[in-house]
Specification:
- There is one protein chain.
- By secondary structure, the protein is α/β, with parallel strands linked by helices.
- The protein has one domain: ATP synthase, F1 complex, gamma subunit (Pyruvate Kinase, Chain: A, domain 1).
- It is about 60% helix and about 15% strand.
- It contains 5 helices and 5 strands.
- A 5-stranded mixed sheet has the order 3-2-1-4-5, with helices on both faces.
- α3 links the parallel β2 and β3.
- The chain is elongated, with a radius of gyration of 30 Å.
Length: about 300
């Protein structure tokens, strides 16, 4: 009984130490997720206005630009999937949901008779693909929970370069992005968006016969404006996806650590009850042995 009591106390101490760790991680994630939400909120207005500017140039200049030229589905041979996961665990099903969504996109590309190409952010996604022996075109890691704009520029420039490259030389004809949108602290939803060719239609409404068509002048010319705006637009989209995914990761981590802390507390309470029962049983056994010994001595006398 003494050994069982000692074991229960050791387990309770171990769970208590674990609870302290999960509680600390919960508090850290709670403080960081607020900053991540604020960063994503600050980036959204710029992204929207840039989207409107690119949409206006594409809509009213009628320039045939390679980044906005919609490729016929029959001509698409290689399609890329760019998806964002976490670098570390302990964040619930965040990475698993992103990986599952990306896997569905890859399967859809295969079903259409195209070759899928993977671009991955985060060690979880990289390890998942490497474990299955699948090829990776490019990967980035070490900043999933704290992205920087420089990283977004690096990723966007790589995607644009591979999109403009002929497929015979390793290029791709279309690029899809999978990121996690933070709906709220308890809801994070993986989303799929086409990055290239660019779908610059947000913020531009259909013109009816009763509307006045705006008159745009482009300096020095529409082609130059698009050449400058489109890479900037793509960088802002990647930057926004990274920020949204970072906020979703931290929110998922905060929720997972809170659940772990609550479970640890319940386990501590159960172990405490079992230890008390074991201690009571031990005391009862000692009293019984004392009473038995006293009775034996009395009988001898």
């Amino acid at each position: 009984m003494a050994a069982s009591l000692r074991e229960l106390r050791q387990r309770r101490q171990s769970v208590t130490a674990t609870k302290k760790i999960t509680k600390a991680m919960e508090l850290i994630a709670s403080s960081r997720v607020i900053k991540a939400q604020q960063a994503a909120a600050r980036a959204l207005p710029f992204t929207r206005e840039l989207n409107r500017a690119v949409s206006a140039v594409a809509e009213y200049s009628h320039v045939d630009h390679p980044l906005t030229r919609d490729t016929d589905e029959a001509d698409v041979k290689r399609a890329a999937v760019f998806f964002i996961t976490s670098d570390r665990g302990m964040n619930g099903a965040y990475s698993a949901n992103a990986i599952k969504t990306a896997a569905r996109v890859v399967q859809r590309i295969r079903d259409e008779g195209k070759e899928p190409v993977r671009y991955i952010v985060g060690k979880k996604g990289i390890n998942y693909v490497n474990f299955r022996g699948l090829p990776i075109e490019a990967s980035w890691e070490g900043f999933s929970d704290a992205p920087t704009y420089d990283r977004a520029v690096e990723i966007a420039d790589q995607l644009v370069a591979d999109f403009l490259k002929p497929t015979e030389e390793g290029g791709v004809d279309a690029i899809y992005a999978v990121y996690t949108r933070m709906e709220s602290m308890i809801s994070q939803t993986p989303r799929v968006r086409r990055l290239l060719p660019l779908e610059v239609v947000e913020g531009v409404k259909d013109v009816t016969e009763h509307d006045l068509v705006p008159l745009y002048e482009f300096e020095p010319d529409p082609e130059t404006v698009l050449d400058q705006l489109l890479p900037l637009y793509l960088r802002s989209r990647i930057w926004f996806y990274l920020l949204q995914s970072a906020a979703s990761q931290l929110a998922s981590q905060q929720r997972a650590m809170k659940s772990a802390t609550d479970n640890a507390q319940q386990l501590i309470e159960r172990l405490t009850r079992e230890a008390n029962q074991a201690r009571q049983a031990e005391i009862t056994q000692e009293i019984s042995e004392i009473v038995g010994g006293a009775s034996a001595l009395a009988e001898q006398n």
